[in-house]
Amino acid sequence: MDTAGKMKRTFTDLKDHLTRQINICYDLSEQPTVNYFELESYFQAITSKFKQIRGQINRYLTELAKTQATEAELDDDIINLAQYGDDIYVRLQPFIKLFALNKLTTASSNIAQPEVKLPLISLPTFSGTEDECWDDFWNKFSSVASKPSIPKTTKFIYIQDQLKGEALKAISTLTLTSDCYDLAVQFFKSNFANTLSCYKLSPKTGGFGIHR
Fold first, then answer.
1. Are 12 and 29 within 8 A, CB to CB?
2. How far apart (Å, rounded) are the C-alpha atoms in residues 161 and 147?
C-alpha cells in the first residue's frame, strides 16, 4: 500500500474513534444526572483527537498530491474532508452550550441567598415586529442580564433565550464564541435602536453569515 493509502487508512481509524467518543458524550449528556466532570474529560479528548485528525488530513492531501490522482479526484477529497470538518464542528456545539449553561447554574447556586427573598424579575422578549421597540427591550434586558461579571458566552445564551421569530433567526448562524454577544448586540442596535419609532428587520440585512 502506498503512503497516501496508509495515511487514509489511519485517517479512517481516527474518524471511527472520534465518532465513538462523540457518541459517548451524547449518551452522557442525556443521563438524568449529568456527570460534567466525566463529560468534559471526554470532550477534551475529542477536541484533542480532532486536532490530530486535522493534521492527518493535511498530511494525507500532501501525499495524495504526489500520486497520479486526477485534479477532479483531488477536488472531491478536499471537499469531502472539508465537509467532515464542518460536520464535526456542528456536532460539538451543543456540548459547548451545555458547559456554559452548567457554569451559569453552578455559579448561581453558589450565591448566598438574601434573608428576604426579592420577587423574580421576568426578562422581556423581542421578535422585531412593528409593535415592539428595541430600546425598551434592551433597557430592561441589560439592567438584569448584561452585567460585566457575566461571561459573554453566557450573556449570548441569555439573549438568545429572550429572542423570538425574525429577531432570533437573524442571529441563528452565530456560534458560541467570545465575540458572539457583542456581534449580536451591535447588529440589533444598528438595525433596531431608535428612541422615536420601532423597526422591523430590514430585508437588506436579513441577519448574519456564518461566523467561526
1. no
2. 17
d(C-alpha 202, C-alpha 134), whole Å: 14
Find out whether 208 and 173 touch, Cβ atoms under 8 Å: yes
The residue with cell 447588529 is 187
C-alpha cell at 90: 456542528
Mean pLDDT by 10 residues, the chain (212 residues): 72 82 87 84 82 79 75 73 81 84 65 43 76 84 75 80 85 79 87 55 45 35
- pTM, rounded to two decimals: 0.43
Reported as half-sphere exposure (CB side, CA atoms, 13 A), residue 141 has a value of 19
Give CA separation, 178 vs 147, 194, 203, in Å: 15, 27, 27
- CA of 204: how far to CAs of 170, 191, 198, in Å? 12, 10, 17
Question: Measured between alpha carbons, how far is 135 from 152 in angstroms, rounded to an integer?
Answer: 20
Helix (H) or strand (E) holding 177: none
